[in-house]
Specification:
By secondary structure, the protein is mainly α. The chain contains four helices and no strands. The chain has one domain. The chain is 73% helix and 0% strand. Helix 1 crosses helix 2. The radius of gyration is 12 Å and the shape is globular.
Length: 62
């Protein structure tokens, strides 16, 4: 839980001075931070998006 809060705070600060943030920008920032912290968690997110949501997250974020 602490890791999630740290990532959330970091991303929140990253967009503090931005008027509009797209879902794509937000997802990219979160996944970038998640990947830095734990590659396995990042992969699990990508697999979940592909399996459950039928979304190709990594391709969408390129």
């Amino acid at each position: 839980m602490d890791v999630a809060r740290r990532i959330a705070r970091k991303v929140e600060c990253q967009f503090a001075d931005v008027d509009r943030v797209t879902a794509k920008d937000l997802t990219k920032a979160i996944l970038t931070e998640l990947r830095k912290v734990n590659e396995e968690w990042y992969r699990n997110w990508v697999v979940f998006d592909r399996a459950v949501k039928r979304r190709l997250t990594e391709k969408e974020l390129e």
